């Protein structure tokens, strides 16, 4: 969940969230990345938004004000073994995913919106 300071909340024990599909964006996610995540979730309402620990300052403030409108979890709260599909948005280079996505999950990517270059 989104925490009171706009960051991904630490309410769930590490690795306790077991979504089949996750939606991620780059480290220091900004409004472009978050909007793309929300839009992707409209296409698959069962997917879970997974936020990196570092968010852009403006987005962090926005989420602090509107935390009750979004369900998003910290990447550390997701059980990677449960994830079957990964949707990546607003990312061109895989290196920008280091904080958002465990490397082992790169092989489960089913969609990327910006021509992901897996260096």
Q: What does the radius of gyration come to?
A: 13 Å
- The secondary-structure element order is EHEHEEE
Shape: globular
Sequence of strands across the biggest β-sheet: 3-2-1-4-5
Mean pLDDT: 81
Number of domains: 1
Helix content: 10-25%
Number of strands: 5
Protein structure class: alpha/beta
Low-confidence stretches: none
Second rung of CATH, namely the architecture: Alpha-Beta Complex
The percent range for strand residues is: 15-25%
The largest sheet is:
5 strands, parallel
Number of H- or I-type helical stretches: 2
- Cα distance spanning the termini: 32 Å
CATH homologous superfamily title? inorganic pyrophosphatase (n-terminal core)
Describe this structure in words.
The chain has 119 residues and is α/β, with parallel strands linked by helices. The protein has one domain: inorganic pyrophosphatase (n-terminal core) (Alpha-Beta Complex). Helix content is 18%, strand content 16%. It is built from two helices and five strands. The chain has a five-stranded parallel sheet with strand order 3-2-1-4-5, with helices on one face. Helix 2 links the parallel strand 2 and strand 3.
